[in-house]
């Protein structure tokens, strides 16, 4: 077997130095060496892949024009987040709420999924969404939940096209968008003209999600304590408009029968 | 349950007249006592208002408005009197105002500036990336990596986890199916980050615990990452273990991506690349690596992963 290579000797030496000087154990020292190596390599981080180059440029721009310009702000954020919003938005590449509503880092805990759907409480089937709601409401203490729908939503289109015979074209997409079936039934029952049905369903699905949110006990609790508001939004990128509304529950005074 | 009429904020597309149309709800301010949105970021990232903005009222023809106006007026009156006793809070109105300003700023400075691009985008999207990121408010991929509208189909969930194929349908793999099979993205990027609450919850979890917790039921997707972290890093501090697990779980998610046949097929054919990314917001660095499919296959047995094209930006 050939002797240990020069670079290996150097790395062992560096590891020993890091352990002694910085009190790092083997694993941590190894990780630090890797990081230092990459740092040196990264000096010339020009990529031949334009997609990767785009995100390199994006991060550099963020670092220079935001992170380094406002160190106090970002240092505070690194200590902990206290967003006022939990936002549900569609995964569609055209509707990032950060972009259209200018959410700054730290403002919105954000869940993005197909058709911005919130399923009803179900710990077995929908633990992903439930975990986000539980964390945002119970741990982070958000004050608003905002569900944003949008125009030309592929997920809503698929929901509309779902065949009544139960046959599936997409395994996972079809299973997911079925959450919106009650909204679809409502739109169809209301007799909305065919050319307006998709937009109506895009908005009605938001309302359905707001209603479903109330099936989560901690959401219900915070609403009754008046510490949480449920809001719906609709971004129409065809005509450049945004709608915003609130879901409110009210109990009328009782009629007293004596 | 009452669904109140919507507030519509729209700008005329005619660049000659910038009019803001605001329809106010005819009833009450919110009783929820909401705080004003944190002022600090607004001071830093201020935006200019369009001084030509004119407020008018106009009836919205949306379905929601029509529905609400059918409500008996008696209900509104009862609500009014009920809420007399509650100290009137303006925070709800402030919030609507704030959202309006934000959207109008986007519309003026971005949408109208690039109207042709947005008109094209309105027809269809063709993103090159699918991004899976954490829901954490500090790590939006649009903000830190500068993704513009149309560039990245994005899923955000707690701890940026990708469950394996055999775990059955979920919102994450529904998005994967759409992005890979319909949109035919060329890259899938899983981005983890520092100080992740979800990973911390995973690492803190007892074996036998409260199964009524959603968080627990979800982060258990990352249990293999936790096991391999414990195997190599149990002598480190808890914080260091969490950091190790944050990265380990990204790699686990990359392996889980390969359990989807339609993903594995595309990766094998070289038409889809799978990348991991790690954003450290304590010292503002970003690492990126790409799954080396050929080499990873050899390590599959012990869950190893081989990477290439590693980059570190600092």
From TrEMBL, chain A:
It is an enzyme of class 4 (lyase). Its EC number is 4.2.1.1. It comes from the Eukaryota. GO terms for biological process: carbon utilization. One of its GO terms (molecular function) is zinc ion binding. PROSITE patterns: PROK_CO2_ANHYDRASE_1, PROK_CO2_ANHYDRASE_2. Its cofactor is Zn(2+). The keyword Transferase does not apply. Zn(2+) binds at residues 90, 92, 150, 153. The keyword tRNA-binding does not apply. InterPro entries: Beta_CA_cladeB (IPR045066), Carbonic_anhydrase (IPR001765), Carbonic_anhydrase_CS (IPR015892), Carbonic_anhydrase_sf (IPR036874). It catalyses: hydrogencarbonate + H(+) = CO2 + H2O. Pfam families: Pro_CA. Belongs to the beta-class carbonic anhydrase family. PANTHER family: CARBONIC ANHYDRASE. This is Carbonic anhydrase. It comes from Ziziphus jujuba (Chinese jujube).
From TrEMBL, chain B:
Its EC number is 4.2.1.1. It comes from the Eukaryota. Keywords: Lyase, Zinc. Pfam families: Pro_CA (PF00484). Transmembrane segments: none annotated. Signal peptide: none annotated. Belongs to the beta-class carbonic anhydrase family. PANTHER family: CARBONIC ANHYDRASE (PTHR11002:SF12). This is Carbonic anhydrase. It comes from Ziziphus jujuba (Chinese jujube). The gene is LOC107427903.
């Amino acid at each position: 077997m050939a002797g240990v290579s020069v670079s290996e000797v150097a790395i062992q030496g560096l590891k020993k130095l890091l352990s002694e000087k910085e009190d790092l154990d083997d694993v941590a020292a190894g990780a630090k060496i890797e990081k230092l190596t990459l740092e040196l390599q990264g000096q010339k981080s020009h990529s031949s892949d334009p997609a990767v180059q785009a995100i390199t440029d994006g991060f550099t721009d963020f670092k220079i024009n935001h992170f380094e310009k406002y160190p106090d702000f970002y240092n505070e954020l690194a200590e902990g987040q206290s967003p006022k919003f939990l936002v549900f938005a569609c995964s569609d590449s055209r509707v990032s709420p950060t972009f259209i509503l200018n959410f700054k880092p730290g403002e919105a805990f954000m869940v993005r999924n197909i058709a911005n759907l919130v399923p009803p409480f179900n710990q077995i089937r929908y633990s992903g969404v439930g975990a986000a709601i539980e964390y945002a409401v119970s741990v982070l203490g958000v004050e608003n939940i905002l569900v944003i729908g949008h125009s030309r939503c592929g997920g809503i289109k698929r929901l509309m096209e779902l065949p009544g015979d139960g046959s599936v074209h997409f395994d996972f997409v079809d299973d997911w968008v079925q959450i919106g079936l009650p909204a679809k039934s409502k739109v169809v029952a209301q007799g909305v003209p065919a050319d307006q049905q998709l937009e109506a369903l895009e908005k009605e699905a938001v309302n359905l999600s707001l209603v479903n949110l109330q099936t989560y006990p901690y959401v219900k609790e915070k609403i009754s304590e008046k510490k949480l508001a449920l809001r719906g939004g609709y971004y129409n990128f065809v005509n450049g408009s945004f709608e915003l509304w609130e879901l409110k529950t009210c109990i009328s005074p009782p009629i007293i029968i004596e | 349950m009452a669904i109140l009429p919507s507030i519509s904020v729209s700008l005329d597309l005619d660049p000659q007249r910038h009019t803001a149309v605001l329809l106010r709800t005819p009833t009450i301010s919110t009783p929820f006592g909401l705080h004003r949105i944190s002022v600090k970021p607004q001071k830093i990232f201020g935006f200019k208002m369009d001084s030509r903005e004119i407020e008018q009222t106009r009836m919205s023809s949306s379905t929601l408005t029509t529905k609400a106006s059918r409500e008996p007026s008696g209900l509104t009156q009862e609500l009014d009197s009920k809420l007399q006793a509650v100290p009137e809070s303006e925070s709800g109105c402030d919030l609507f105002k704030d959202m309006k300003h934000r959207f109008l700023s986007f519309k003026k400075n971005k949408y109208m500036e690039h109207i042709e691009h947005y008109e094209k985008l309105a027809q269809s999207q063709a993103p090159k990336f699918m991004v899976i990121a954490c829901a954490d408010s500090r790590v939006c991929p649009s903000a830190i990596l500068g993704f513009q509208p149309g560039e990245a189909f994005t899923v955000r969930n707690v701890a940026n986890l990708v469950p394996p194929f055999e775990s059955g349908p979920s919102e994450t793999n529904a998005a994967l199916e759409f992005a890979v099979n319909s949109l035919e993205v060329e890259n899938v990027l899983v981005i983890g980050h520092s100080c992740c609450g979800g990973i911390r919850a995973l690492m803190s979890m007892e074996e036998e615990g409260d199964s009524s917790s959603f968080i627990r039921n979800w982060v258990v997707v990352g249990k293999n990452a936790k096991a391999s972290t414990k195997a190599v890093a149990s002598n480190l501090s808890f914080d260091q273990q969490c950091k190790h697990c944050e990265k380990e779980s990204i790699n686990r998610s990359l392996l889980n991506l390969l359990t989807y046949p339609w993903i594995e097929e595309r990766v094998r054919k070289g038409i889809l690349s799978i990348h991991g990314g790690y954003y450290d917001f304590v010292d503002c660095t970003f690492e990126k690596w790409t799954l080396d499919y050929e080499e990873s296959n050899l390590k599959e047995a012990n869950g190893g992963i081989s990477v290439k094209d590693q980059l570190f930006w600092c």
